[in-house]
């Protein structure tokens, strides 16, 4: 049995506005994943060499990996929310959000410091 059939058999149909809002949130996560992928590729392709050899590549790889992870988990989040709405349960908290926000902040700070050191 396919996942759409299993989903429709779970609980009751929620108000379509809530399902559309859930879909918009899914698309926002996908946009975030694409932005992370673009940032990683851009860092590798266009950034000048940083103070430590190989560090630019490592930071770029972390950004691309974060994009892949965000993309992979976006559907799971959408599905968990949809099932919760169908079963009239509270929506589950976003597990990825703290990791994503702190990870992007740490990577951005590292890039900032390394670019600053390279230009001194």
Automatic annotation (TrEMBL):
Which cellular component appears as one GO term in the record? Answer: plasma membrane
Q: How would you describe this protein's topology in the membrane?
A: Multi-pass membrane protein
Task: Give the UniProt keywords, A-Z.
Answer: Cell membrane, Membrane, Transmembrane, Transmembrane helix
Q: Which residues form a coiled coil?
A: none
The protein's location, in the record's own words, is: Cell membrane
InterPro entries per UniProt: DUF202, IM_YidH-like
**Which residue spans traverse the membrane?**
26-47, 59-79, 99-118
- UniProt KW Cell membrane keyword: yes
Q: Which residues form the DUF202 domain?
A: 17-82
Put simply, this protein is called: DUF202 domain-containing protein
């Amino acid at each position: 049995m396919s996942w759409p059939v299993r989903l429709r058999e779970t609980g009751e149909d929620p108000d379509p506005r809530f399902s559309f809002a859930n879909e918009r949130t899914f698309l926002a996560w996908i946009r975030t994943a694409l932005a992370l992928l673009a940032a990683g590729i851009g860092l590798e392709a266009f950034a000048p060499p940083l103070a430590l050899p190989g560090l630019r590549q490592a930071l770029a790889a972390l950004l691309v990996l974060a994009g892949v992870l965000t993309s992979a988990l976006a559907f799971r989040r959408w599905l968990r929310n949809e099932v919760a709405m169908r079963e009239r349960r509270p929506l589950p908290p976003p597990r990825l959000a703290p990791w994503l926000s702190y990870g992007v902040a740490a990577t951005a700070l590292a890039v900032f410091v390394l670019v600053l050191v390279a230009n001194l």
